[in-house]
Design brief:
single chain, alpha/beta, Barnase, Chain D, four-stranded parallel β-sheet, 6 helices, 4 strands, globular
């Protein structure tokens, strides 16, 4: 899937990705070699909005002005000026099932924010994609 994304055969979006952790790591390395900025969002143990936003602040290295709310997350994902890239942005949202099971509403809102950020970046020369690994 990474190869299709990098070559443009797969449209940037939110995609489920049937992969092993080893294959995912190789794909991330390839994306980085191709100039993509990769963010690995580890969803292990996420159960609510507060811990999700805290994790996003760390994993995305969000600026200190990040307001820990949905609007602020959307604004930061539409900006990313602190995280330059040569080719595009790739978010690997690992263990997403933890939050999806614990709080489907919060998980759904996060996916909506990712979709909106992807739509924003489509209007620019820079791509954004989100992959949801599944074993």
């Amino acid at each position: 899937m990474i190869e299709e994304l990098l070559t443009g055969r797969l449209e940037p979006g939110v995609h489920r990705w049937a992969t092993s952790h080893r294959e995912a790591a190789r794909g991330v390395t390839e994306a980085e070699r191709e100039g993509w900025r990769v963010f690995w969002l580890d969803g292990t143990g996420l159960r609510d909005k507060r811990t999700l936003l805290d994790r996003c602040a760390v994993e995305f290295s969000l600026p200190s002005y990040f307001g820990h709310n949905w609007d602020a997350l959307q604004d930061c994902l539409n900006d990313l000026s602190w995280a330059p890239t040569a080719s595009g942005y790739l978010v690997v949202y690992d263990h997403w099932q933890d939050l999806a099971d614990a709080d489907p509403s919060v998980h759904g809102t996060l996916l909506e924010i990712f979709e909106a950020a992807i739509a924003y970046w489509r209007k620019t020369p820079t791509s954004m994609a989100v992959l949801l690994p599944e074993a």
